[in-house]
Amino acid sequence: MKQLRLRKQMTGFTIIEVIIVLAIVGIIILALFIAVPSMQRNERNNRRKHTMELIGGALVEYYNTYGHYPTTSAEFDTFKNNTPELTKYYAIEFRDRNQSNNYFPAMDTIAVQQAHWCNKYGNGTAGEPVAGSNIDRNLYVVWTLIEPDNPSSHNTACIDNYDNSAP
């Protein structure tokens, strides 16, 4: 009598299949390591810009209440005390009209600088505030450093109340 041998079905993965799956998982993990820090940096920069816009709006409210923008450190302290939610994530620094615009605020510091406006017309590094010939205008600039893609460079975000059409 002939014995029949039953072949047992082998289950499992071949080494090639395992290597392919590991390569795909590795590519996905690599993509996450590249994308997540960039997304976090963009979120922090968006929060900085949003806070700057809130400060600009609060300065307008201050102007509507007092008839002028804060011009002294004491007035600026009043402004900050009336808007404590603005200092939740960032320090806010006041710089009066006599202080130079040739500085960068510390990271996570938002500077409010009097008698300056954003450089939107290519004079110097884009975004840095500049003083102009009309330094007695009731101007302000709100600006901060934002995290650049290249760590060796300075990027700034800047908003102001400058009206280029005004005399």
Account of the 3D structure:
- 19% of the residues are buried.
- The chain is an alpha+beta fold and 167 residues long.
- The protein has helices at residues 15-66, 73-82; strands at 91-95, 109-114, 117-118, 129-130, 140-146, 155-160.
- It contains two helices and six strands; from the N terminus they run H-H-E-E-E-E-E-E.
- The chain is elongated, with a radius of gyration of 28 Å.
- The strands form two sheets. It has a four-stranded mixed sheet with strand order 1-2-5-6, covered by helices on one side. Strands 3-4 form a two-stranded antiparallel ribbon.
- Residues 121-126 have low confidence and may be disordered.
Features of the shown structure:
167 residues, alpha+beta, 4-stranded mixed sheet
In short:
The protein has helices at 15-66, 73-82, and strands spanning 91-95, 109-114, 117-118, 129-130, 140-146, 155-160. The chain has 167 residues and is an alpha+beta fold.
